[in-house]
Specification:
27 helices; 37 strands; binds adenosine-5'-diphosphate; binds zinc ion
């Protein structure tokens, strides 16, 4: 191989650009982009880097160092992936290194600080060379070592390559930074003691139980379940499943256990597998037969995809969109192509994987950040060309936003379920990408098609349909002609006046809840916690101070005692009297899920209550377990934030209560009304999906608000046209594009100076398009003060040019001496 061989590599760091290295002579692998090399960086550090370019002319102007070693014999990143990384880095104004860092599972990223831990003992007849044995010993003895320490101990060795070989053999693995917390659930399993298994014994049992119908039911249910379950695991059936199937009470089972008929035992199950284990990986179920309107929609999608790359499926909640996706997936697999199925929330994958596994079995794999590094690496490697497909071929990836980074080989279809969800956007850290929009680019690279699905399209996507950019297919009826839920609006101000309010519960709401509890139906109560930002409201007339220029409510700033607009910076003193009714009854608003949970306990002491929000899912019970319990009717009332609104499919929810629509409607954000509609329509959609018509109670003081009216009438189109008028009038997306630039520093004065300077320089080029600087909603995070500039660009502007101008100004600012330690964060299409 030539002596003059150089590579440009991408380092998985926030550094700008690529870095050139020399390939020492004697390297006998043919190097191509996408392979990894270990390279020195800075004084002592070593990183894995991804080759971006291979060439032969010596770069001039700086010293070029040698790589340490080559880590792969074949690329682990494909060309198309590199092109997607480029697009993300250009579009979202971040470095290739940041994209690389987000994209690669950590198993592919070794660096000096990475800790290596022992993974398994070698088999007796497994041959290890001396060094390997010695490394394994040291790592086992110490319980784990960093690569840096290993490099010190094995100075004359190529430690990176050595580790790579040993990790491939699974002798060693990388210590995962975020150790998975309690991820097990204890299930109570029921079985017949061994001696009772044969038919004669069972007949005897039945005879003995002549008088107890309930007991007989339990026994037959057990035998039935066991017969269905073609798995060899000692015939254990989960207690709750058994009780539900037999429709008997726990006391009956308990008596049978006491009599020695059944045995109970506890089994620990990893949470993620709870669903997977119930449904064997058979995957031979035929997809559901589509009804007429679903069939028409399915055909229309196919037809629209002939002239559009993207089609929006706008189908009301429970219209059977998922069933249509399943047919689309099957069609794509039949063409020998892969499918990416994106979901906005990790927890939703648990429900969805069941539905997909029934039909597609092992062809589906799940990919998201709650899976261990090892599992993610495995999926990555399986997908690579010539990857380890011996055990398993993956055709469908079900995942959260990071799955757009996987090495797809011939993607045919991307499904973006609940496309309106803002969780598709990554806020922090960079790359601040939107997975829906990125997946459209990904599909474009593969020549694949995209189906966006939702009951409540984002204004952007629906607008793209109206302008003809996307195809549109609408499905306005629920499956089985289930009626859309009936929606009642309770004016809480009036209710309070009539003394028909107990704290946050109107009489109407509590009556419906208690009726539901009596009928053993379930209830969901929705309290949007984004109400943390307080606003003012007149208790007599309901007046909320709004910004005159931006049509958002003003935020109460306790420290300065002022009301402020977070979009344009307008501020005013706190009014002593209501400017409308002149009464002095203005109050600060905002309450959370915890409070609601507390009040339910007082109102309905017998109800079993679960709370689903960021706090409860981070700690004790995880999201999946809560949903699992709710699904099994072990919880009567589920209280939650927007997490409960996402595409969950429960059969027994009769009543949905929206505790306070005002907090959503008055949230200081130009998307507040769109989001409110989406949240209310989605959470309403959880009611009455299977049995009888559901009922939704909305508590609000704005009962004549156009958004509430649209929710009550299930009229997306009314909301759409109202909101579009406002967006046009106030010039917000989709009529313009937004780029925000946030500056961060610990010193407030310095930050103010920097922000003013950047604003001035940008305004010099962009004029009125730049607004701010403003303190964002949360002014200080972890001791860093924040200030934000907002750039509004007309649709026709040359986006790329503006971005490079913004970058140049940011770089210039960072070069001037007082601002070196400043952080400046551009965010394209901020949400
Ligand atoms: P969406 O995704 O539109 O909210 P789903 O696909 O979840 O709706 O459908 C709602 C419920 O109705 C699901 O439990 C689903 O299994 C059932 N369903 C919908 N369409 C069919 C069909 N054609 N055959 C059988 N069941 C269906
Ligand atoms: Zn304003």
């Amino acid at each position: 191989m030539s002596d003059n061989l150089y590579v440009d590599v991408i380092l998985p760091l926030a550094v700008k650009g690529t870095f050139a290295y020399h390939i020492p002579p004697g390297t006998c692998v043919e190097l191509t982009p996408g392979m990894r090399v270990a390279v020195p960086f800075g004084k002592r550090k070593i990183y894995t880097a991804v080759i971006y370019r291979v060439y032969q002319t010596k770069p001039s102007g700086f010293e070029v160092r040698d790589i340490v070693s080559v880590l792969d014999a074949k690329p682990v990143v494909t060309d198309l992936q590199l092109r997607l990384w480029e697009w993300i880095s250009d579009y979202y104004m971040c470095t290739l290194g940041e994209v690389c860092n987000a994209a690669l599972p950590s198993g592919l990223k070794l660096e000096s600080e990475t800790r290596i831990i022992p993974n398994r003992l070698p088999d007796q007849d497994e041959l290890l060379n001396e060094t390997e044995r010695s490394v394994l010993d040291s790592v086992s003895r110490t319980g784990g070592m960093s690569i840096k320490q290993l490099q010190k101990a094995y100075r004359d060795r190529d430690v990176m390559s050595l580790l790579k070989v040993m990790m491939d053999k699974e002798l060693l693995s990388i210590e995962e930074k975020i150790r998975e917390k309690v991820r097990e659930k204890i299930l109570v399993m029921i079985r017949l003691p061994g001696t009772r298994e044969d038919t004669k014994q069972i007949d005897e049992l039945f005879n003995k139980m002549k008088r107890s119908e309930a007991k007989k039911r339990l026994l037959s249910a057990y035998l039935k379940l066991k017969g269905d379950k073609n798995v060899k695991d000692g015939g254990e059936i989960e207690k709750t499943v058994l009780l539900r199937k037999a429709a008997t009470r726990h006391s009956v089972l308990k008596e049978m256990i006491n009599q020695g008929i059944f045995e109970a035992l506890e089994k620990k199950v990893p949470l993620r597998e709870i669903h997977a284990q119930e449904i064997p990986l058979r995957g031979n179920k035929q997809p559901a037969r589509l009804n007429d309107s679903q069939q028409l929609a399915f055909q229309a999608i196919g037809k629209q995809l002939k002239d559009h790359n993207v089609v929006l499926l706008h189908g009301v909640t429970s219209s059977g969109k998922t069933e249509i996706y399943i047919h689309l997936i099957r069609k794509t697999l039949n063409k020998g192509k892969q499918v990416l199925y994106l979901l906005p929330e990790i927890a939703l994958t648990a429900q969805m994987i069941n539905r997909l596994r029934l039909v597609f079995g092992e062809k589906v794999a799940v990919y998201h950040s709650k899976y261990s590094d090892r599992e993610r690496l495995q999926t990555w490697r399986t997908l690579l060309p010539g990857g380890d497909q011996k055990d398993r071929k993956i055709h469908i990836i079900l995942g959260a936003r990071s799955s757009v980074f996987l090495p797809f080989m011939n993607l045919g279809l991307v499904i973006v379920d609940e496309e309106h969800e803002n969780t598709y956007k990554q806020f922090d850290p960079a790359p601040r990408y939107h997975a829906r929009d990125t997946s459209i680019i990904l599909a474009g690279l593969h020549g694949a098609k995209v189906v966006l699905g939702t009951a409540t399209p984002s204004l952007e996507s629906y607008y793209n349909c109206i302008t003809g950019k996307y195809g549109l297919v609408e499905l306005p009826e629920r499956y089985l002609d289930m009626k859309m839920p009936e929606i009642l609006v309770v004016n809480t101000r009036e209710a309070r006046r009539r003394e028909a309010m107990y704290s946050h519960f109107s009489l109407t709401l509590s009556e419906y809840i208690s009726r539901a509890l009596q009928n053993r139906d379930q209830v969901i109560l929705f309290q949007n916690r984004r109400g943390f930002s307080s606003y003012l409201e007149c208790q007599d007339c309901g007046y909320v101070p709004l910004c005159m220029r931006c049509d958002v409510s003003l935020t109460y700033h306790k420290k300065t005692s002022r009301l402020k607009c977070h979009y344009c910076g307008y501020s005013e003193a706190i009014p002593l009297k209501c400017p409308v009714c002149k009464n002095e009854n203005i109050m600060m608003k905002g309450f959370g899920t915890e409070k609601i949970e507390e009040e339910i306990a007082l109102l309905f002491p017998e109800a079993r209550v679960g709370r689903l929000d960021l706090d409860t899912t981070r700690t004790r019970k995880s999201y999946e377990q809560l949903l699992d319990d709710f699904d099994k009717k072990e919880i009567d009332i589920l209280v939650g934030t927007q997490m409960v609104s996402k595409g969950l499919d429960f059969d027994n929810v009769k009543v949905v209560g929206i505790m306070n629509a005002d907090t959503m409607l008055n949230f200081p954000d130009f998307r507040a009304h769109e989001r409110s509609y989406q949240l209310m329509a989605q959470v309403s959609g959880r009611a009455g999906r299977k049995k009888e018509r559901g009922l939704v109670i909305i508590q609000t003081t704005c009962d004549d608000h156009t958004v509430i009216e649209a929710v009550v009438k299930h009229d997306y189109h009314a909301m759409y046209s109202n909101q579009m008028t406002e967006r046009r009038n106030f010039n917000y997306p989709p009529f313009c594009r937004l780029i925000s630039v946030t500056l961060k520093h610990k010193n407030r004065e310095l930050l103010d100076g920097a922000a003013e300077k950047l604003a001035k320089n940008l305004k010099h080029h962009l004029g009125e398009r730049v607004s701010g600087p403003e303190y964002p909603l949360v002014e200080r995070i972890q001791n860093f003060y924040l200030k934000t500039l907002l750039i509004k660009l007309e649709k026709s502007s040359k986006l790329q040019e503006v971005k490079s101008l913004v970058s140049i100004e940011i770089q210039a600012l960072l070069r001037s001496s007082p601002f070196k330690s400043l952080q400046v964060i551009p965010d394209v299409d901020p949400y």
